[in-house]
């Protein structure tokens, strides 16, 4: 796709692709964050990996006991910041028309203050391409830690950790950031009745099960319930 004269690569994540996340608050992945009221802002990013083992190399997740497993509910189009894309996760700091860091003053104020270390879409990009549900990229520090883990505690599970590169030459397993709802809203959504909200909305992903942090338990799930296709694991029930 082209936006303001810039070609922006996208990829399609197929329906039934498995998504893995270490989360302390699973409900927030569907009904947003409590800011006095539950709220989902326009640039709400829910972060997943395509493998259940990526979190084992990122210290951020050390105190989270479980891995939540979801699958995509439809084919999802996202902006690609992995090769052969010329963009990467650091693009948010560079001169281009579609992305900023999430705490940028150039983004309009919403119910949730974003983080400087995360990429967010510009409002003008979302207005023109509301069908774009998120982005996929590599975090440089996380990827470096993963490479170390693949030589040690994750060596046995390497077959379950697909690797890619980005324009910087960083090699790792990609994360994907998704907006929860199939329809992108350009204003804050405030939710007073979360159960009825979940029952009435169409989401980009659905919850399947919870896995322990025991690597052998996760490998058992992968062996029994997945098929590798084009670098992503499809759910086989």
Describe the structure.
With 237 residues, the protein is α+β, with helices and mostly antiparallel strands. The protein has one domain. Helices cover 16% and strands 30% of the residues. A five-stranded mixed sheet has the order 3-9-12-15-7, with no helix packed on it. The radius of gyration is 17 Å and the shape is globular. The two termini are 35 Å apart.
Topology:
Blueprint: E1 2-3, E2 6-7, E3 10-13, E4 18-21, H1 28-31, E5 33-34, E6 38-40, E7 46-49, E8 66-72, E9 76-80, E10 99-101, E11 119-121, H2 123-128, E12 134-137, H3 140-150, E13 164-165, E14 171-172, E15 175-178, E16 189-191, H4 194-200, E17 205-212, H5 215-225, E18 226-229, E19 232-235
Parallel strand pairs: 9-12
Antiparallel strand pairs: 1-2, 3-9, 4-8, 5-6, 6-16, 7-15, 8-17, 10-11, 12-15, 13-14, 18-19
What key attributes describe this structure?
3-stranded antiparallel β-sheet; globular; alpha+beta; 5 helices; 30% strand
Distance, first to last CA: 35 Å
- The total number of structural domains is 1
List the uncertain runs: none
Q: Write down the overall geometry.
A: globular
SSE string, helices as H and strands as E: EEEEHEEEEEEEHEHEEEEHEHEE
Radius of gyration: 17 Å
Class of secondary structure makeup: alpha+beta
What do the pLDDT scores average to?
93
Brief account:
The protein is α+β, with helices and mostly antiparallel strands. It contains five helices and 19 strands.
């Amino acid at each position: 796709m082209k936006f303001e004269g810039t070609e922006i690569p996208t990829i399609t994540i197929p329906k039934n692709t498995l998504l893995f996340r270490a989360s302390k608050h699973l409900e927030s992945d569907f009904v947003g964050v409590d800011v006095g009221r539950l709220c989902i802002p326009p640039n709400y990013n829910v972060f997943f990996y395509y493998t259940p083992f990526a979190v084992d190399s990122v210290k951020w997740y050390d105190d989270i006991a479980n891995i939540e497993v979801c699958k995509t509910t439809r084919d999802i189009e996202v902006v690609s910041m992995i090769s052969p894309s010329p963009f990467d996760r650091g693009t948010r700091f560079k001169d281009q028309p579609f992305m900023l860091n999430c705490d940028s003053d150039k983004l309009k104020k919403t119910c949730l203050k974003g983080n400087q270390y995360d990429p967010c879409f510009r409002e003008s990009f979302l207005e023109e391409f509301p069908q774009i549900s998120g982005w996929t990229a590599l975090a440089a520090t996380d990827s470096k830690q993963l490479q170390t883990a693949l030589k040690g505690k994750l060596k046995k599970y390497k077959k379950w950790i697909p690797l890619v590169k980005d324009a910087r030459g960083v090699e790792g397993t990609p994360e994907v950031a998704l907006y929860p709802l199939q329809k992108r809203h350009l204003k804050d959504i405030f939710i007073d009745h979360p159960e009825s909200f979940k029952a009435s909305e169409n989401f980009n992903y659905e919850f399947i099960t919870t896995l322990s942090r025991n690597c052998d338990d996760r490998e058992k799930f992968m062996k029994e319930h997945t098929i590798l296709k084009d670098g992503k694991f499809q759910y086989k029930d």
